[in-house]
Design goal:
The chain has 220 residues and is of the alpha/beta class. The chain has eight helices and seven strands; from the N terminus they run E-H-E-H-E-H-E-H-H-E-H-E-E-H-H.
């Protein structure tokens, strides 16, 4: 499903990509809060097929898709977009953003990422072009000291950081907005370890996804 859930033109569209192995509240909750502040009515969830920065995933494509679809069922803000899974190549963000911009040329795109991704952003494939296609909305996760940023990230923020969500509407792309909408510090690796040890994860991801993981005997 690659379509915006409305017949009216969406002025600003959120995008959150990832392997989602599994998707969890560290993805979901800060995105919901940021979307509310930005006035977004929809965020596309883009499961990656072959992430260039990771060697493999534990859950297969069908299982990761099913978990993202369950997240969409629980939160009407989200729509699953499977375009990256349909490629038989690396999931480069710049390629995806070009496709979405072509599909919705009059729409401003807001690409959500965590602080860990921002710290590596200047190593991403054609990262400069990414900033011509969208704004970056960065969730400042606990444990990341903004005063200890590497020199490349400091230079990036000096040129592109914006201070208010209102500035998103004043330019079509190129802004980097830092948000602090969560105290959650969850990793998918940590979650998989908890499932393997049969530890409770109810406070870390939706119950329907937990039930699915157990039914599939994932991460054991």
């Amino acid at each position: 499903m690659n379509t915006v859930k409305t017949n009216q033109r969406v002025e600003t569209l959120g995008i959150l990509g990832g392997t989602f192995d599994p998707i969890h509240y560290g993805h979901i909750k800060p995105t919901i809060k940021s979307a509310k502040v930005l006035g977004l009515s929809q965020v596309l969830l883009l499961p990656a097929h072959i992430p260039p920065h990771k060697s493999n995933t534990i859950a297969n494509v069908q299982q990761r898709t099913a978990m993202v679809e369950l997240a969409c069922q629980s939160h009407s803000l989200f729509t699953v977009d499977l375009r990256e899974l349909k490629r038989n190549s690396f999931s480069y963000t710049v390629t995806t953003l070009k496709e979405i911009k072509k599909q919705y040329p009059a729409t401003t795109l807001c690409f959500f990422m965590g602080m860990d991704s921002l710290l590596n952003f200047t190593k991403w494939h054609h990262w400069q072009e990414i900033l011509t296609l969208c704004h970056l909305i960065v969730n400042a996760r606990p444990g990341y000291d903004l005063t200890q940023l590497n020199s490349a990230t400091r230079a990036l923020l000096a040129l592109h950081q914006i201070d208010s969500p209102c500035e998103i509407n004043q330019q079509s792309s190129g802004g980097i907005l830092m948000t602090k909408h969560t105290e959650l510090n969850i990793s998918s690796t940590e979650l998989r370890h908890k499932f393997k040890q049969n530890l409770s994860c109810q406070h870390l991801l939706p119950i329907n996804i937990i039930d699915y993981i157990k039914s599939q005997k994932l991460y054991l």
